[in-house]
Write a structure and sequence with these properties.
Blueprint (H helix, E strand, L loop, with lengths): L1 H5 L2 E6 L5 E7 L4 E7 L3 H13 L10 E3 L5 H8 L4 E3 L2 H11 L7 H15 L11 H34 L1 H7 L9 H9 L3 H5 L3 H10 L6 H11 L9 H37 L4 H5 L6 H11 L9 H8 L4 E5 L2 E5 L6 H17 L1 H12 L4 H22 L5 H4 L3 H9 L1
Parallel strand pairs: 1-4, 4-5
Antiparallel strand pairs: 1-2, 2-3, 6-7
Helix pairs in contact: 4-5, 6-7, 6-12, 6-14, 8-10, 10-11, 12-14, 14-16, 15-18, 16-17, 16-18, 17-18
Length: 419
């Protein structure tokens, strides 16, 4: 009986939209149980019952391997406090070839493969971090806001491409602003006059009213005069009926852009509010180049489980900031890391770029790398590596960013070495 209680078992779950297959194996790889559940409370109850029948307890929970890190099933498993491993589907496919050479695929076989991955190579895979509920909420909002920004960019590109086909004068009239077609004035103006014919009939009084509606508060008369002249400048035109049809299409694309802009703004506000409630927010925003929104994106990807990264190098590798060395025989090549958290790497690029404008040490570090022969991207990635290493240190020690410590002058370095 004691041997049975001490026997280790492992669970694999093949996730699908309609049902989930479960396989439990022991230390020898023998199948102990199999089941199929649906994505419901009853299915979760059945899963917990099967695990309990094979020795699952609160003190010694059975680890679970699954091919996704999202969804209700994963959230419910994480809430039980058990180790959950999100196995990359490509890695699982390679393990499947160890079970069969026929390349056959079935839900039960996939669940069995996942369970055996934990049995043989659990140390080679990372379990999902034990992040707090607040960080998980920040991650949802920050990633959704980033997706909304991508949708906004895509919608803006579609609308811009369409306007070039029949209304290039509008793009010339609003293109002097940095936001271009995304600016509220541009969107309000296009909604009122989606064709060159309608735009040329707008009076100065109507333009002033549209500018006020878009939120313009100063130099309204001068801007109305400029738009009045720009929208009446000669340009090539489509046939009248074709122009009207393309105007209707522009309004449809504009509605998509307006929705994407509203979503991005609302989610940015929500992500910022949630981020500022977290105790790590003050430390993260103490770094030059990180504001509330970019800080929320950073926190969403690194989490607040401090055991997730053993050292700063692990966090750098996760962000793609640490290089990777490939050695074979006498050949050694140092390359940029391509397998990384793409969201964290993306915000890291903006972080490093902004830090150079707010930190003399960061700018000097970038300049030194450029003088050493690095291209712009490599020098910026090296700066990001330095900054995220400092972030790991500050979060671990619970201290704010210090310019003097992060980027000491050569004299300070010499004195510290001498001491």
């Amino acid at each position: 009986m004691r041997e049975l209680e001490q026997e280790r078992v492992f669970c694999g779950i093949d996730w699908a939209s309609g049902h989930h297959d479960i396989a439990i194996v022991d230390e020898s790889g023998a199948l102990k149980a199999r089941a199929r559940i649906d994505d419901s409370v009853e299915g979760m109850t059945e899963l917990l019952q099967v695990l309990a029948e094979h020795g699952d307890t609160a003190e010694n929970p059975i680890p679970v391997a699954i091919e996704t890190s999202h969804g209700l099933l994963v959230a419910a498993l994480r809430a039980t406090g058990r180790p959950v491993y999100a196995i990359n589907p490509m890695a699982a496919a390679r393990y499947r070839e160890r079970r069969t050479v026929a390349r056959k695929k079935s839900d039960h076989l996939d669940a069995l493969v996942l369970a055996n991955i934990l049995r043989t190579d659990a140390d080679a895979h990372r379990q999902l971090p034990a992040d707090s509920e607040l960080v998980q909420a920040v991650a949802v909002l920050a990633r959704a806001q980033q997706n909304a920004v991508w949708d906004r960019t895509q919608a803006g590109n579609k609308l811009t491409s369409h306007l070039r086909e029949y209304f290039p004068g509008f793009l010339a009239a609003v293109g002097h602003r940095r936001e271009g077609i995304f600016h509220p004035i541009a969107r309000v103006l296009l909604a009122a006059a989606p064709t060159p014919a309608k735009a040329s009939k707008l009076t100065r009084a109507q333009l002033r009213a549209l500018l006020k509606k878009a939120g313009r508060k100063n130099t309204i008369d001068a801007e109305a005069e400029r738009l009045h002249a720009a929208l009446r400048s000669p340009q090539m035109r489509q046939l009248p009926l074709v122009e009207q049809a393309m105007g209707r299409q522009a309004l449809a694309l504009l509605r998509q852009l307006d929705a994407a802009c509203t979503s991005a703004e609302d989610l940015a506000e929500a992500a910022t509010e949630a981020f500022e409630e977290h105790p790590d927010a003050e430390i993260i925003t103490s770094f030059p180049g990180l504001g509330p929104l970019s800080g929320a994106r950073v926190l969403a990807e690194i989490g607040d489980d401090r055991s997730r990264f053993a050292n700063a190098r692990g966090m750098k590798a996760y962000a793609g900031a640490a290089p990777i060395t490939r050695a074979s025989g006498r050949s050694t090549v140092v390359m940029a890391r391509r397998v990384k958290n793409q969201r964290l790497a993306g915000v890291g690029y903006m972080w490093a770029f902004s830090a150079m404008a707010h930190s003399t040490g960061a700018r000097a570090h970038y300049d030194r790398r450029r003088e050493a022969g690095d291209r712009h991207t490599a020098a910026q990635r090296n700066l990001f590596s330095r900054m995220i290493g400092c972030l790991h240190h500050c979060l671990t020690r619970r201290t704010h960013f210090s310019e003097d410590i992060a980027f000491p002058t050569p004299r300070e370095v010499h004195l510290s070495l001498a001491a």
